[in-house]
Amino acid sequence: MTMTMLVLNVNPALAEEMVDYLLVQEGVNGFTSYQVHGHGRNRGLSVTEQVTGRQNREQYEVLMDVSDVDAVVDGLAENVGRDIVYWQQPMTGMGRT
Question: Is 24 exposed, middle or buried (0-12, 13-18, 19+ CB in 10 A)?
Fold first, then answer.
């Protein structure tokens, strides 16, 4: 089993749909979510976001087998929505105490 961390960065308006989606995915045993701010040259910023220089986002971190990632990512647009940025980070170790 090769583990990876799938990171999903989404528009806060999609938060409930994302949680519902992740909870029913076979390859997802659990995940962590938190509020973050996006910075950069993003399109579609509100006036407030343009003034403050940050965009509100929700981020989800899912530790999972790399072989399950495609199934989760492939269903995002249809089941959750658009305005989702994702990436993977290889896991070199993990555990629980």
Answer: exposed
Please check whether residue 72 is in contact with residue 28, taking contact to mean a CB–CB distance below 8 angstroms: yes
Distance CA 53, CA 60 (A): 22
Using an 8 Å Cβ cutoff, are 55 and 45 in contact? yes
Indicate the SS3 state at residue 48. helix
Residuewise pLDDT in 10s, the chain (97 residues): 799 999 999 999 999 999 999 999 999 999 999 999 888 776 677 777 666 777 889 999 999 999 999 999 999 999 999 999 999 999 988 888 8
Q: What span, in angstroms and rounded, lies between the C-alpha atoms of 70 and 11?
A: 21
pTM of the model: 0.87
